[in-house]
Amino acid sequence: MKKFDLPLWADTFFIFCISFLFFFCIFRFYIEALWGALAASCAAAGALTFLLHIITKRRHKKRCDARQDKLEIQKLSFHLAMDAPENNAARIAGALAAESGKDAAVENGRIALEGKQYFPIFRLEPTTADELAAIVRSGGGEKAVLSSSFTKDAQALAAAFDIRLINAEEIYALLKEQDMLPEHYIMGNEMKRSLKNGIKLRLARKSWKGYLLAGVSLLLFSLISIFPVYYIVAGGLMLAAAILVRFFGKA
């Protein structure tokens, strides 16, 4: 069953409301009967909303897929940091072997494949230069380090010693391509997106600028509207929301 795309339909409903308000201000001026103006406004707003829905649906899907991948990467990073090192090494070795078609060996927490050594380092914090220094001192041939993220000093050290750094995005792409992502993430349910979390995001203090922009835009549009009262009321509500979120929203 296809999942209901709440953000897409919420945007569609918002577009319909704004379009209806725009057309109603115009048709109410030219059509004396209230029901006639309402019917004409609904028809025009519906047609415009349908057209914009078709145009934006694919772009919205791309944005949603990108956000979903970002969430999956976060869950994978946390899972790898909390899982046993031997489990991580075995999973990544299997994915590398499937990708290259060669056998990968795991020994002392490192992965050997085609003369190259892979060092999985998964923690809740970014991998530091001190941790990379130990790998540099270990000697050997070509090296690669897998970690969720790296500090700037670690990146500079890796560049100086020609060590490849593989971050969470690349690890996720590798495991996803080889169908070797964890079936159940550690604490995965707690990291899922939900309506409650979405509402919290809309009420976060950092979102006040969006309400401010919407309110100011509506008030400016009231200057050229035939019936400005609708835009003044809506713009005033948006400005009030911006003030409330700015001073009382959660950081």
Describe what you observe in this structure.
The chain is an alpha/beta fold and 251 residues long. It is built from 9 helices and 5 strands. The protein has helices at residues 6-30, 34-82, 85-100, 129-137, 152-160, 168-177, 195-202, 208-221, 229-248, and strands spanning 105-107, 110-113, 116-120, 142-146, 164-166. The protein has a 5-stranded mixed sheet with strand order 1-2-3-4-5. Helix 5 links the parallel strand 4 (142-146) and strand 5 (164-166). The mean pLDDT is 84.
Topology (SSEs and partners):
Elements: H1 6-30, H2 34-82, H3 85-100, E1 105-107, E2 110-113, E3 116-120, H4 129-137, E4 142-146, H5 152-160, E5 164-166, H6 168-177, H7 195-202, H8 208-221, H9 229-248
Parallel strand pairs: 3-4, 4-5
Antiparallel strand pairs: 1-2, 2-3
Helix pairs in contact: 1-2, 4-5, 8-9
Low-confidence stretches: none
Shape call: elongated
Distance N terminus to C terminus? 36 Å
CATH names the topology of the largest domain as Trna Endonuclease, Chain: A, domain 1
Q: Give the amount of beta strand, in percent.
A: 5-15%
Number of helices: 9
- List the secondary-structure elements in sequence, H or E: HHHEEEHEHEHHHH
Q: The biggest beta sheet, please?
A: 5 strands, mixed
| pLDDT averaged residue by residue | 84
CATH architecture of the largest domain: 3-Layer(aba) Sandwich
Number of strands: 5
**Classification by helices and strands:** alpha/beta
Q: Please report the first level of CATH classification, the CATH class of the largest domain.
A: Alpha Beta
